[in-house]
Amino acid sequence: MTPPRRDDPTPGPTPAAHPGAESTERTISRKTLLRAAVAAGAALPLLSGTVALARDSAVQGRSLPATPACDDGDGPTHDQIEGPYFKPNSPLRTNLVTAGTTGTPLTVSGYVFGRTCVPLAGVLLDFWQADDAGNYDMAGYTLRGHQFTDAKGAFSLTTIVPGLYPGRTRHLHVKAQAPGQPVLTTQLYFPGEPRNTTDSLFDATLLMNVRGAGGGKEGTFDFVLNVVGTPGPGGPTDPPTDPPSGTWAAGRSYAAGDRVTYSGVAYRCVQAHTSMTGWEPPNVPALWRRE
């Protein structure tokens, strides 16, 4: 029997659910103004001469900076509830579309930053969503997958626009975890959706920038994690005097079922991958299961 298609709306403090619900004493930033505009369904505007995201300036014929500014006063990305449809051990992939997938094509791209505006490499991003009819696959891993940000902190997801189901507006679920740091669980929303005003979980700070792209849509969103962040491959700033003992090593190809040890603990590989610094077994539960 298919479980009721409804995310649990009960836990935690009530978010700033709708544009305009925040205190008027809060400093109004460029991102706050932009989110209010797109929440109202407006076209992506130029606000005080600044486009929504720096990479979006490419379509305006301007040069593309290496990375956009990560924060202008809004703070780290808000967390949201996991809901009842999360499944661990999703496949390692950036494209969730398979031969049988129907719906409006959607790509979502962006960057992951620390609070000091440093792009974060090796961040685990685990996405899951409803299909075009509003159903979640609980038997397999349809429209589920995880990936890692590249050396510039960038990610890109190929999927479809999720369908609607009772009680919720359109949304994507995501878990984000920088190497060795806590997991951020949140949701991403679409501008101009009528149900944005009636969904009790909707948070305007989590709106993507979305534009039409041929027969599909393109979305952008930048995550800001509540970590300081270090440049480079994502390794620790101050490594321990003695490196962790064990058989795990960066730069090796591991297959599902392979067993390694790390700092005296045994782990079993659950997803085939080539290891890299920052993906040590304790940091990436999507790749390694502790035994």
UniProtKB/TrEMBL annotation:
Superkingdom, taxonomy of origin: Bacteria
Region (Disordered): 1-27, 64-87
Chain ranges of the Chitin-binding type-3 domain: 245-291
GO MF assignments: dioxygenase activity
Keywords: Dioxygenase, Hydrolase, Oxidoreductase
InterPro entries, sorted: CBM5/12 (IPR003610), CBM_sf_5/12 (IPR036573), Intradiol_dOase_C (IPR000627), Intradiol_dOase_core (IPR015889), Intradiol_RC_Dioxygenase (IPR050770), TAT_signal (IPR006311)
Similarity field: Belongs to the intradiol ring-cleavage dioxygenase family.
Designated name of the protein: Dioxygenase
Organism, scientific name: Streptomyces similanensis
